[in-house]
Amino acid sequence: MEFRFNINKIFKNNISRIGNSLLPAGFIAPDRRTALDTTAYVAEIINTIGQASAAAQGLSQPVTTSDRLRNCDEQVVYLMTEDDGRNGLVVGLLKIGRKSLYVFDKFGDTKHVNAPCVLDFYIHESRQRSGLGKILFEYMLEFENLLPEQMAIDRPSEKLLSFLRKHYALTQKIPQMNNFVIYDGFFASQESQKSDINGSANMHITASPNSNLFGPQFISEDNPKRRSNSRAREEAPMVQSQAFGRYGAPRPQCSLNQIIHNKPVTAVQEPNRPIYYPSRDDHNNEHEENVGTASNVEELAQDMQSLDVVGKSDDDLPNTPSPSVSPSNENDDEEDQVDAKNGTGYYQQPEYFDDPENSQNQQQYYRNQQNLHYQQQQQERVSPIPNHYNKRQTGKKNVSSIIVGTDNKIEFDQIDDKGFGVVKINRPIGASSRSSTHEHLNDNESIHSHESSRTHTADGYFDLKFFSHRLW
Ligand SMILES: CC(=O)SCCNC(=O)CCNC(=O)[C@H](O)C(C)(C)COP(=O)(O)OP(=O)(O)OC[C@H]1O[C@@H](n2cnc3c(N)ncnc32)[C@H](O)[C@@H]1OP(=O)(O)O
User: Fold this and answer.
1) 390-440 tens-digit pLDDT
2) Ligand 1 pocket, 153 CB below 6 A?
3) Was 163 annotated as part of a binding site?
4) 130 lines ligand 1 (CB under 6 A)
5) Where is the composition biased (Basic and acidic residues) (predicted)?
6) What is the distance between the alpha carbons of residues 108 and 344, in angstroms, rounded to a whole number?
7) What distance in angstroms lies between residue 412's CA and the mean position of ligand 1's atoms?
8) Closest to 146 measured CA to CA, from 190, 93, 81, 80
């Protein structure tokens, strides 16, 4: 590879080591101007041979550029030149540098190493397979005081793999998940550099593929399984997690790990986490009352079932529907109708039930009952507040009302900024005047159906008062 300038004045030896100064080691410039010119020439040489190396490897971008070399303290380039009696030739490039890597050892555990790496290696096509590559590589190993197996190879080509196999008998690769190739014997030389991200000498990060999901786990080197180099995992390895911080939280069992190690995959058991129900008085730190565990939820459900619905307690009701009943479920609708006809329904039946011409009203009645039931349950979950609390006790300022009409439309009517919401069921849309709504607003009344209202119309009125956060 020829250049427009005489490279023999720059490189006094066949192999020159160049660092981030872009001047060959031992180069002496008579003046500053010469130094700057030489730097520019070396930059041009490096860029040119870097391009040639990338082309030889089929890379779209060169791995070696003068800018990268200038800006990196950890990398050096070995250039091989020939004196052809004219301007001289550049015939080879070898770039190495230390890199901080997470690599798998032969047991599949991840280790953090700061390893010397072969980053770029190129011998001009006219000189390949003539032994120059080995000369250049040997020079580098000697200068850096390294063994070939100590080096990690960055994306080696088939030619380089063959080169290493032939000259250094490197055949036993340790599989990695990154582009680096390391060989057996790599870790024997890394003992002195062993460390983890905390700098601890006796810990390392596991190679779990779930590390990205659940965070790294730190396994002690004192683990007897690691000491014995046994990969049989009859018992769970001792995993030491950080007691605090990001990785301090309990992690779910890694099912992939169980599959890989042929263990029965157990169902993931959710920890008994506290359940937080939104409190109306969060700002008063009273939400502690609303924090419970799953068992508390059952108690809450029992409390809900014991509430008086439409003036009738559960004790009077032979068939209490499941709390999970969905108001939109048509089948459940039918079942409830049958129950009601048999006198085993959950709610009281209005008089028009006996009128066969009123079947539409009956259906509407059941739908509304189920809606009410569902909304009550939802309301209870969000705001499990004794129904005798008044506005002053709850401190709420927002009042709004929902009016559910006979055609299943819901009218949500905000009256003014007071404290509670009211759902009015079975009222004609828009027919409920604000004044009449106000008349029925009594903060001391229960969240259940409004008996007095229901008597005003054959459709029946069921007001549901609720505590709500302000929506608008
Ligand atoms: C991390 C990296 O840099 S990966 C990129 C490596 N670089 C390249 O692939 C660029 C193209 N190749 C080259 O530049 C050179 O072939 C090098 C640098 C790999 C080796 O340099 P050479 O001067 O050819 O090596 P040298 O002559 O000392 O050793 C020759 C041995 O290298 C291997 N080798 C070299 N060229 C080839 C080739 N075309 N095909 C297969 N093996 C080859 C063989 O093992 C060969 O031995 P053999 O001739 O008995 O089969």
Assistant:
1) 555 555 554 454 545 445 555 555 555 555 566 665 555 554 444 444 444
2) yes
3) yes
4) yes
5) 279-290, 436-455
6) 65
7) 79
8) 190
- Identify the structural domains of the chain with CATH numbers, from first to last: 7-191 (3.40.630.30), 272-472 (no CATH)
Tokens 């599959």 belong to: 259
Please state, in angstroms and rounded to a whole number, the distance separating the CA atoms of residues 323 and 380.
11
Provide the 10 A C-beta neighbour count for residue 324: 10
Among residues 421, 329, 324, 424, which one has the least CA distance to residue 373? Answer: 324
Quick one: which of 328, 371, 373 has its CA closest to 346?
373
> Which tokens in the block code for residue 185?
């014997």
Whole-number Å distance, alpha carbon 16 to ligand 1 midpoint, is 20
Looking at 21-155, list the stretches that DSSP marks H as alpha helix, in order from N- to C-terminal side: 32-57, 66-70, 132-144
Which of the four pLDDT bands, split at 50, 70 and 90, describes residue 445? very low
Ligand 1 centre and the CA of 164: distance in Å? 9
Dihedrals phi, psi of 57, to nearest 5 degrees: -95, -5
Distance 167 CA to ligand 1 centre (A): 10
Q: Is the pLDDT of residue 230 over 50?
A: no
**CA 118 to ligand 1: nearest atom:** 1
Task: Report which protein residue has its CA nearest ligand 1's atom 15.
Answer: 123
